[in-house]
Write the structure tokens for this entry.
Amino acid sequence: MFMIGVDYHPSFQQIAFLNQETGEFGERRLDHSDGEVEQFYRRLQSQSVHIRVGIEATGYARWFERLLGELGIELWIGDAAEIRTLRVRKQKTDRQDAQLLLKLLMEDRFPRVWIPNPENRDLRQLLWHRHRLVQMRTRILNQLQAVAMNEGKRWKKRLWNKQGRALLENLPLAPWASRRRQDLSELLDRFNPVIGELTTAIEREASKRPEVVRLMTHPGVGPLTALAFVLIIGDPFRFARGKQVGSYVGLVPCENSSAGRQRLGHISKQGNKLLRFLLVEAAQVAVRFDPDWRRYLHLAVRRDRRIAKVAMGRKLAVRLFWMWRKGWDYSQFVEFGSHAGQPEANPGVQ
């Protein structure tokens, strides 16, 4: 076994390696710009030894993962937060980080995380692309509303129908204000068909997956939210209970309790922020149709509207988890509930 601990950076990587057969140990810095990384791993792969590489979960490493996959090299990606807690020394350098990763690999203590397959990752790009374009379109709509309101026209949603657009274009404006209105209108006309095309693609992908179609039976949950939930959760049997799903998505509060006193803070936000956003948005629609969720309206009055939104989003995540895991649609979930059946023995998130 040839083990390599990699402290990955966008422009280079610091590695510490050990050949368990010969006892050879070494350290190197490999630059990403001159092909040194590919040459190093191809040379190792030609030696016909089993290679295991461990890195922290990080961004901008997709090309590195593909390279190791093409070479047949085993790649382990670790939980960065848990690895951080395993550092003993107060000093932190690239060499020490690489040595720590190698040590965890050797001692079989590497906190490996679940990695989605390439198809899953590519579909996530579709969701993110549409989400970002919708955000950009919203900024354009807000700017056009500001142009109209500066002229004393507060038309709200009526501004976007055919008559409202005509009134907007006929407003007498100064030269540069008129130029701003024209450019923003042209951008809006370009964004709408692109977003519509991406929405159609998401609906098509959602219809191919029975579990997504089943989740869409829940009020307020459309193709975008259901598909994002399935892609990001990956496998419902990785979780033993719904509370772990809420924690995985980052919708549970931080806690700093001690000496019998409980101290809860803001939500952790340690999960996927796109899914967290979609769950909260979908939950606000679901509460209008599901009478069981009326108590969250009381929570909004008693505590705070933001707290109620997060609570609804967490509740929706747990509901979707049990519907997916048990293979139920919404009507079956309402009839049987999430706690039907015997509890299963599962140590936690896999």
Remarks:
- Strands lie at 2-8, 12-19, 25-31, 51-56, 74-78, 253-255, 264-267.
